[in-house]
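HUMAN: I'm a chemist; might I ask for a sequence paired with its structure tokens?

ASSISTANT:
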Amino acid sequence: MASTTVAGATSRGMTREEKKVIFASSLGTVFEWYDFYLYGSLAVFIGAAFFSEYPEATRNIFALLAFAAGFLVRPFGALVFGRIGDLVGRKYTFLVTILIMGFSTFLVGILPGSASWGIAAPIILIVLRMLQGLALGGEYGGAATYVAEHAPSNRRGFYTSWIQTTATLGLFLSLIVILIIQNSMTKEAFSAWGWRIPFILSFVLLGVSVWIRLSLSESPAFKKMKEEGKGSKAPLSEAFGQWKNAKIALLALFGLTAGQAVVWYSGQFYALFFLQNVLKVDGQSVNIMIAIALLLGTGFFVLFGWLSDKIGRKPIIMAGLALAILTYFPLFKALTWAANPALASAQQDVRATVTAAPGDCNFQFNPVGTRKPLTSCDIATDFLAKNSIPYDIVATAPSGTAATVKIGEETVESYNATTAGADAAAKDNAFKKGVNTALQDGGYPLVRDPAKVADSKLDALVAGNPKLALDAAAIRAGEKTVVPVDQAVKDKLVTAEEAAGATEVTVYTVPNAGAFKMVADPAAVNWPMVIGILFVLVIYVTMVYGPIAAILVEMFPTRIRYTGMSLPYHIGNGWFGGLLPATVFAMSAARGDIYYGLWYPIVIAAMTLVIGLLFVRDTKDTDLDEIK
């Protein structure tokens, strides 16, 4: 890549047309990210509407396809629409991507579930999700390229930084819309149909975005290239089939976007996952905390974009990577103490030991959430990891024996799901109850839900929970509910055989006798500290992400710019970033340490830091028309 820089360029104010370009491009991209995040945020409700009626194997296939569409398909969208953008033009290409994204999202909101349309419903849903992934793969590169080609050389970082706010604003908007709708109706109503409203509302955003984008003109750089007859006839082969350009794409991927992606996903998405799934903070509180941190930090995308016009893109991105590498471990540990101090204290005092036979423990990489542990060691470690319990694995048990979990002075035997057969459910209940009881005795913040129990099973519940000191006679003398036998069977309170021809079943609600769950005490959550830590993580995101569009567009010539920058961006963010939560959890489960998985973003960021420092050239003040 040969290029020239513009010396002595004078600053000027932003023209009305340039403001319009930035606003239209940014608004459309916010809308596309909003659509994309809705699916992830509402996946539980979507799964219930479209997948729950099918056998496990079928559900797994659909989950895999949905995952692939969301992240792995994005680079293919970059190739398809990048090529079109370099052949036909920036404006019309990202007008097409926003239409595809908008209609796909709206159709998800009105698509009947599998109860009405059968197998056609989830198939159509997957097709719509794939269209979303393809559209997002083409949208970002088009918007960034379009804005950059309108910007003065000495203000390109500032102009394109507005595009960089869009992913965060899209996430913020999706969280706010979901919170507003959730708070305006009952949980039952939201689960049944309310989750569809955010998808349907996107049609309004689509209309506004398309109307504004239709009034835009093509970028000056693209028009000049076309007038001079210098366009590429084969952007894909020129961008990636010629070594001089392919090596730039590789440097963009490994020296910029891979590290940027893991810092971005760690600071926004994994932080949310960590709070909700590892530290057990309730989901609504987590969404509010993340939303506040994003609101406080979003302006720094523009600040660092502006600063990159003064001191360069590369120093800011590399500094963000270095800060993340040095501080992730202390920040996430501080987050644990701030969000769930009881869990942090228990982790210091009580550690589990899993004793298993050699070869019984496997690496539990589960990106789509459908893989079920089968060996006794995998069942034990999966349960401990999901409950944020630190543990050590000792592979000294005799071959063929079940793994055991020792917590304090109590030892609980696991089971092999394959050999357990019909007894698997009973063994699973016994294992989880034994481990949870030991954890509760050890000081972990576990609570038990109320238990709904049929009269015929009440005596067994009392006998099986001596620590609760339950009195069957007192329970029977208290409040009770009489439900039709069909409903009792549906709710799994009794089986059809146990009902023995009865028409009604008497049901009691017994406090603190149901399923165990790890919780973060809402009164103990240090909100200011949690939001402060999240804000620091968001600042790292703004450092690596704010200047990234400017440096990517300045690495490629106009004739292949849309194609060239889009692919490394979406491989970095779709693959390195998209696989981060599953990879981090699998690494943590393998080591029995909730922080161990942080080595994944740290190592990737360190790789990018080294490659970026050694081989990536800063591009500040580059004249886009002179890149060869």
Strands lie at 352-355, 391-394, 404-407, 410-413, 446-448, 451-454, 481-484, 504-510, 516-518. Residues 4-10 have pLDDT under 50 and may be disordered. Residues 243-278 form the longest helix (36 residues).
